[in-house]
Amino acid sequence: MDRFAARSLALRPAQRRDREDILHVLLHSEVFGLADADCVGEMFDETWAKPRPDGYRWLTAWLGQSLVGFACYGAEALTQGTWDLFWICVLPNYRGQGIGRALLEAVLVDAQRESARLMVIYTSSTPAYAPARSLYEAAGFVCVARVPEYYRPGDDLCIYWRRLG
Ligand SMILES: CC(C)(COP(=O)(O)OP(=O)(O)OC[C@H]1O[C@@H](n2cnc3c(N)ncnc32)[C@H](O)[C@@H]1OP(=O)(O)O)[C@@H](O)C(=O)NCCC(=O)NCCS
């Protein structure tokens, strides 16, 4: 975050008009593809079509007029205070400068403000997701379970977990 102080990194909840910029970040992520963009688009549309306090939350990261990253998170239905981080992504040209960390920290603060008890993150075991796994571990998440070949052969599900509060 400090590295962006001079350039004014701003974090703010997404507006409905941010849909295309969010999909742009996702489609240029170098890890996500069209199926992921469809999924994010559906989640985004649902957020605005059926606004609910326990619906998806979207946080965007801005440098000036450019949306350079986002996170999507929210409470997990049928649990007592368990929240999920569903998506987090920063445009490649802006990585390694503290934006992902700033987004994740703000997600944790918001969840804690809502008395969240736990946060859980699903991610992949492949090398492309090594930065994400490091980001989660640096933020105090622990990989508590690994489901072999969950996504596809050679691509395990890693479930990250952190107690909040
Ligand atoms: C994961 C991601 C959001 C990190 O964003 P970022 O802005 O580059 O991350 P930051 O600069 O805030 O880094 C914070 C910490 O994450 C870890 N990290 C980030 N990039 C890393 C890399 N390339 N290699 C290893 N660790 C890395 C480090 O622990 C880092 O802390 P440090 O700078 O003190 O070493 C970004 O790499 C991304 O968008 N990846 C593609 C999408 C993705 O994988 N999303 C998660 C899917 S579950």
Q: How would you describe the overall organization of this protein?
A:
This protein is an alpha+beta fold. It has one domain (2-163): Aminopeptidase (3-Layer(aba) Sandwich), CATH 3.40.630. It is built from four helices and seven strands. It has a seven-stranded mixed sheet, sandwiched between helices. β4 (82-90), α3 (99-113) and β5 form a beta-alpha-beta unit. α1 (19-27) runs antiparallel to α2. The two termini are 22 Å apart. It binds coenzyme A. Coenzyme A is lined by residues 29, 31, 88-90, 95-101, 123, 129-132, 134-135, 138.
Question: How does the SSE layout of this entry go?
Answer:
Layout: E1 9-13, H1 19-27, H2 34-49, E2 57-63, E3 66-75, E4 82-90, H3 99-113, E5 118-124, H4 130-138, E6 142-152, E7 155-163
Helix pairs in contact: 1-2
Strand residue content: 35-45%
Which class best fits the helix and strand makeup? Answer: alpha+beta
What is the CATH topology descriptor? Answer: Aminopeptidase
Q: Which ions and ligands are bound to the chains?
A: coenzyme A
Strand order of the largest sheet: 1-2-3-4-5-7-6
Cα Rg? 15 Å
Shape: globular
Unreliable segments of 5+ consecutive residues: none
Number of strands: 7
CATH architecture classification name? 3-Layer(aba) Sandwich
| Separation, N- and C-terminal Cα atoms | 22 Å
Query: For this structure, what is the CATH homologous superfamily?
Result: Gcn5-related N-acetyltransferase (GNAT)
Separate helix tally: 4
Largest sheet: 7 strands, mixed
CATH class: Alpha Beta
What value does the average pLDDT take? 95
Estimated helix fraction: 25-40%
Our count of domains comes out at 1
